[in-house]
Amino acid sequence: MKIAAFGEIMMRLTPPEYLMLEQTKELRLDFTGTGVNILSNLAHFGCQTSLLTNLPDNRLGEAAKASVRQLGIQDRWIGVSGDHIGSYFAEMGFGPRPTQVTYQNRRNSSFGVSGASSYDFDAFLAEVDLVHICGISLSLTEETRESAFMLAEKAHSLGKKVCFDFNFRPSLNEEHGVSFMKEQYEKMLPYCDLVFGSQRDLTDLLGMQLDKTLNASKQFEALVQRFMTKYQIEHFAGTIRQGEGSKHYLTGFLFDSENYVQAVPKEIINLDRIGAGDGYAAGVLLGVSEAWSLSETVEFATANGVLAHTIQGDVPLTTRKQVRHIMEQPTVDLIR
Amino acid sequence: MKIAAFGEIMMRLTPPEYLMLEQTKELRLDFTGTGVNILSNLAHFGCQTSLLTNLPDNRLGEAAKASVRQLGIQDRWIGVSGDHIGSYFAEMGFGPRPTQVTYQNRRNSSFGVSGASSYDFDAFLAEVDLVHICGISLSLTEETRESAFMLAEKAHSLGKKVCFDFNFRPSLNEEHGVSFMKEQYEKMLPYCDLVFGSQRDLTDLLGMQLDKTLNASKQFEALVQRFMTKYQIEHFAGTIRQGEGSKHYLTGFLFDSENYVQAVPKEIINLDRIGAGDGYAAGVLLGVSEAWSLSETVEFATANGVLAHTIQGDVPLTTRKQVRHIMEQPTVDLIR
Amino acid sequence: MKIAAFGEIMMRLTPPEYLMLEQTKELRLDFTGTGVNILSNLAHFGCQTSLLTNLPDNRLGEAAKASVRQLGIQDRWIGVSGDHIGSYFAEMGFGPRPTQVTYQNRRNSSFGVSGASSYDFDAFLAEVDLVHICGISLSLTEETRESAFMLAEKAHSLGKKVCFDFNFRPSLNEEHGVSFMKEQYEKMLPYCDLVFGSQRDLTDLLGMQLDKTLNASKQFEALVQRFMTKYQIEHFAGTIRQGEGSKHYLTGFLFDSENYVQAVPKEIINLDRIGAGDGYAAGVLLGVSEAWSLSETVEFATANGVLAHTIQGDVPLTTRKQVRHIMEQPTVDLIR
Amino acid sequence: MKIAAFGEIMMRLTPPEYLMLEQTKELRLDFTGTGVNILSNLAHFGCQTSLLTNLPDNRLGEAAKASVRQLGIQDRWIGVSGDHIGSYFAEMGFGPRPTQVTYQNRRNSSFGVSGASSYDFDAFLAEVDLVHICGISLSLTEETRESAFMLAEKAHSLGKKVCFDFNFRPSLNEEHGVSFMKEQYEKMLPYCDLVFGSQRDLTDLLGMQLDKTLNASKQFEALVQRFMTKYQIEHFAGTIRQGEGSKHYLTGFLFDSENYVQAVPKEIINLDRIGAGDGYAAGVLLGVSEAWSLSETVEFATANGVLAHTIQGDVPLTTRKQVRHIMEQPTVDLIR
Amino acid sequence: MKIAAFGEIMMRLTPPEYLMLEQTKELRLDFTGTGVNILSNLAHFGCQTSLLTNLPDNRLGEAAKASVRQLGIQDRWIGVSGDHIGSYFAEMGFGPRPTQVTYQNRRNSSFGVSGASSYDFDAFLAEVDLVHICGISLSLTEETRESAFMLAEKAHSLGKKVCFDFNFRPSLNEEHGVSFMKEQYEKMLPYCDLVFGSQRDLTDLLGMQLDKTLNASKQFEALVQRFMTKYQIEHFAGTIRQGEGSKHYLTGFLFDSENYVQAVPKEIINLDRIGAGDGYAAGVLLGVSEAWSLSETVEFATANGVLAHTIQGDVPLTTRKQVRHIMEQPTVDLIR
Amino acid sequence: MKIAAFGEIMMRLTPPEYLMLEQTKELRLDFTGTGVNILSNLAHFGCQTSLLTNLPDNRLGEAAKASVRQLGIQDRWIGVSGDHIGSYFAEMGFGPRPTQVTYQNRRNSSFGVSGASSYDFDAFLAEVDLVHICGISLSLTEETRESAFMLAEKAHSLGKKVCFDFNFRPSLNEEHGVSFMKEQYEKMLPYCDLVFGSQRDLTDLLGMQLDKTLNASKQFEALVQRFMTKYQIEHFAGTIRQGEGSKHYLTGFLFDSENYVQAVPKEIINLDRIGAGDGYAAGVLLGVSEAWSLSETVEFATANGVLAHTIQGDVPLTTRKQVRHIMEQPTVDLIR
């Protein structure tokens, strides 16, 4: 299956060795973004992947493309527009100190200023079976909203699978209120086949209600099933994080039209606190695109999410072999 | 409140990535010292701070001043004298391997050779509300003892608050015995308002006795109260470390003339095993200088001490916002 | 003399060891900008300096302020506004390969979005004898133009010295044509006492004519004198670069109302190709503020400009002692 | 034109900052090789490129492929075989100290053990217009000789252009004598259209004679013309290095069936002393494949070779814009 | 006691900060190998040590010797032969992600191609009391097997102690089956006095049977005693790893002809997952060579093995003082 | 010939990439000192070398010894005393910016506090043919003077060759005047066979007069000959630096009892401006100890001095092969 994504390439700048920004002049530069992360992981799983986006026509744009290629993603649909790449600084946390992300201007990025006319959606879609669209597009600018809607609509009408990721960040939506954002998501969802989200996305953003008459453990299940029926979603997936003392666990869930499965919780040991969600998503996309059973899919995807936390940076670089290794031989900590 | 400190600026040289000295030629250079650490943290809390010390009139002295300014401390009371900065090498421990500190010559440092005539105490004190004096001054050289006593006496007589930190290190006092050091501390304490120390400082150094007729849990409290009464100390504070299996916990305590509070123990996860004491002291100085309740003060100061262990180097760089964050949302490990 | 500047703090991101962006993930982060560069150098010369600007209220803003303090510049007039710091990437050239600078978005920076109402000019000017304004302000945004004009006007009317730097970059002025920019410069110049610029600024931007009837060597002199008379400028200064085979030379010039001097050309050996202009300007400001002779000033300033090229980064960190050393003992290449 | 190469991917391990191996534990790892270098440069010129080779099926092989993709080269013809990648250590020279290359085992590399049956030459050639074969293949192993011959023969018979690079290294041919090597080259040359070499390759290796009756300046020209006629070569190209005092110059030459041109010598300023030959070859391949004039080609290729010496590592990463820049504006050393 | 070893010097190349090979171009180079590791540790314990091996006569060979000297090992028995040093890349694991070792060609290394005639065993043995031979020699090449056998035989006949380490790696023995390897080990064991191995070495490789009629806890003991009797082994030692939840423990065991002791399990906290076995072996060799009690020896050796996991790289650099410190004061995590 | 030295081991701390101390927190640590430098170079030439000195009994002392061993020097005569190692910071110059050395306290170093009773000179000398004593010993402390005199006297009386290096630094002798220092040198010289120095040492320090009646070119020669006769010196050697425009040249000279030779000046291209003197001295010691002709010796030693400037750090690491390479093939800048 040829998998593509539409989304922003950002720069992540990270001080080394858990230092804070005041403590060092050295930074590590990685190119990242939800689309980059998911596609790179799928490429490492052996899929053919391609990213649709725009970058500036300068040295930074070229460096970004080189990095994307290195990650295994085709760069032929990366166009040229604008003169800025959005960036964020990640001061990596340690123990009780949280990882602190500081965003720089994203709205004026090459991606942010690119409307639908900047892309050749038809040619792009002709080469694609499934396209992933990140919800950030709905928050960023009028241009990214327009582009996301047109891409989703065209893909849907051409019978391509559309995968959508809620990824709702209040910090990016201070300008527009929740009701504006709700409208945007409601406009997008009818085009979508596979959706990543959480209970909070359905209740707080879309305004759906939990059925309190149900047994507590069934409320979430029923809510999701109503949501999937309403928008004719084929799969809905996401992760839950739980803490127990100073230990943290990750559990993935996955719904299809009839069933609901949840993975065995797996302990999280963090090298980098960013990126597990995209790792989980890549795992689900692999399982769904290869028609694995739901439970095989969530177990693989959860293991992959946990591995993503052990890798520096947002981009999960795991192979099938590595994921299967920690599923099958979790106690082997040295391979030679 | 304008807070100042009198103390030594030292160089800390640390190999990267937990390497031992034999394993690398790379070192990280930080300027540190109890005064630097506490003032830098108070500056990050928004206080106006100033350090009284001497440095050599050379490139190293200039670099040290630049670093102190960067940390938010005013450098206008840093004078010029001598030709040497004391240093120590910190081989950072990991798991059961302890952090190993190796000191180089301190007695011949610019600070060590500077007697009272090297400083303009009156002008300095005119700009200060509270001055912190580190007990190391009493151990280092005849000159630093002389300077510390004169500064404390003048500050006291001018009605400035004097904060003193026992910081008794047997390794710096092999030349003089305990009885000599006891005399020095007894000479200093009458000038002091706020003192940092431990039970052992009162019993082993000052030779005070625990009242064994008391309930065990009251013996320490009674001891401190006798100590505070004897020297007319307004606040006495310190930390206790406890281990439980492979976990370690930090608890701060704080006495005023009438009450005694102890914080809820907080788990320590170490990035750097040096610096929590100064983080705790900065927290207490903030609370006391802003007249917080004792319990508000110890909880904040203990959280700050725990955060200090998650920061590379001796210098705590926490802001109020960061400390409050881990007090209020301890499970959030990623902020964006 | 208390010297201040009004200008932008930018981030410079530089790959190590002459690598190109594609070749490394490591970057060195420096905070820079014309104001930062000149003031830092003056602070290293022993002057009291202060920067008027705005930064975002986040971790990057704090890191920028810490860096500015380290350089010796007071940070009390650095306000909070916006949420972005402009940045540029510098791929350092080697031999025939030019240094390549790639700018990221500057117009949306905290400085770019700050109009006159963001600053308390009166309070600021009360503490200042001379203020430096960088011409970039006239190119950047409507807000920076407005702020620059109001500051210059107020400073002028209060009898403070105003120093202005043409710094005209066509790349920042693609939107507005030359005639628009000419108007802006003409509006600014009447407030100015000391101006940095080049012959091209006077002819191509202001549209002044060389008097071809004059001896070629007098044309530039006469042009500048007309310019100075027209706008009642006290000093006009700048640098000329000349190549001779593979060698390059720097020469500073300086006019006062009556005289014109030019320095002995000094060979440039580049560690970093950015920053000599600001080094030259700092040298001139020092000489003028201390009323040195014109020729003493240009020789010192030219030597300082040459030294700036031997220092990594834009920020000249030279002391008077270092500049005098290479003026007096140019063949001594090791000091101990 | 679709350009491909057949050749080895090697690891280059380089200590930083001109250090010698004894002086550091840090190394920079680059993947390199004549094919990688030429194709990467052509990809930066905008050509579609592809490498035919084999790598081990392990983590190093994956990392090598990722690096090749980053450089802009398609990795779909990189197969899996063997378990070793050849490597060399480059201690970078400075001034009179030469760069010292130390090779590790190459004969047992994945490439070295791969015979003709390891590759699908027909499928590969179907996608290619011109294929570059490095002469190292003739020296390395029986398997690489066999593969190179079969590829050249098939390409030639299919009417694809074959480009061959003498690249004769005595150090790789201690086992076999010159007469054995001569046979190999004579077997290869009839398949070739474009050949890179030197006068010494024709005289010392192939045993051809200079015609001493000719004017000295014509001897080389006549020799090459005889060589080209004998093997029906369309283009012959190479570089000459000349020293003049402590300055070094690079000059490229290029023959077609009728003409001979030589570039204006350009001064070499070395950041890295390895890689100019491949930069020159990439320039020639670009000119020839786009049917530029001989003189346009050699000037561009020589400038590119000179630029290659200003870039860390063997791989030239220059764009057309950069090469044209130093051809047209050689004195501009800072672009912004 | 003068302790020597016969074995390979390898290069270990490790990306920094837990990065994977695709994520960085930076590597750390260490020279390692079982013999290097054990001797270096013994040298840090104060023993006189010497390594018998061969290296190439080039810059890498010189760098390897310099590194060995730095570790405290005499280099006078390191000869010159071949032109290759075996290497491996270690991608360091984190949490559930295992450390991944990728070997490069070892069979063609200088050590691998050196047969018995390359060494002067008699002169070497004249200076030695005990010689350690690593079992890898039996797997590597015909030459290393021949050398190991001759050295062991000569040492045994001269009355020197021979220490042998099973170190059986299936990955190095794909070519030869288990029965071939069994023969080799059986040929070696009669020369040995002290052997390091595991139950699996005795059962799976040598084909010995557990006596299932015994109490489970006695089966291993009885097996080892039969093994020791059969080959007249004086000491047999090894380690057992156990997991309990996410915690791991190391326990050493040691047999002499009459007794069997096992250490108290110690928790493992990994900085580096490679090297504890060699640390344990060095501890046992120290105890045995100084005639400590069995239990003193295993406790020291186990503590040393645990410490080895807290040190970057394979080479344990612990001193007696450090080992005793964590045995006696396990809760002190900062020494100054 | 077994060559030994008596002298201090110092730490050199150097910022990377020509940065100044204010610009970085990273430092490179090297152990250095005249004795270390000369012996290391002789060890690389194949001589057996040994250093007599004292170091503290701590982690730094151990790291220093490890480094000395790595350089090829035996550490068995390095004793334990004191608790401090002298250090200096080297901010590396570039172009017109001079290298700036800043010393930290040396007088209180382990070497500085070690008097004659700290060493077993007899046992040491029994293993030595020639001993090098650095003149710094005469400046440092009473203890180092006493040690140097006793060692020189004993060596001389035992018929060992004594090599002495003036190395007179006014900065280390501010306390004692020139006449005091003159006495010390006059006391040392009668024990010496081979002396390194300059004309200025003989005139300004020893107060000898140039014979102005001689032809200018003969004055130096006659002066040295008088000096050598007076103290019965066998060889006198040193270097002269000359500038010609921006180029610098190094020339070595060497006297024996009858002849005087001077090398052909060689251009200096500096990677590091410290260490050429020790490189020259090592070359002379090699030639003299192997009884080369004077001119062979000065050419080799001068080439070695020039190479020393191309190596990072003070310690020359050149081999005979490398020195001969640049003498015989100065234009080959790449060896493979």
Automatic annotation (TrEMBL), chains A, B, C, D, E, F:
GO terms for molecular function: kinase activity. It holds the Pfam family PfkB. Gene3D superfamilies: 3.40.1190.20. Keywords: Kinase, Transferase. Residues 2-310 form the Carbohydrate kinase PfkB domain. InterPro entries: Carb_kinase_PfkB-like, PfkB_dom, Ribokinase-like. It comes from the Bacteria. The keyword Heme does not apply. Belongs to the carbohydrate kinase PfkB family. This is Carbohydrate kinase. It comes from Enterococcus ureasiticus.
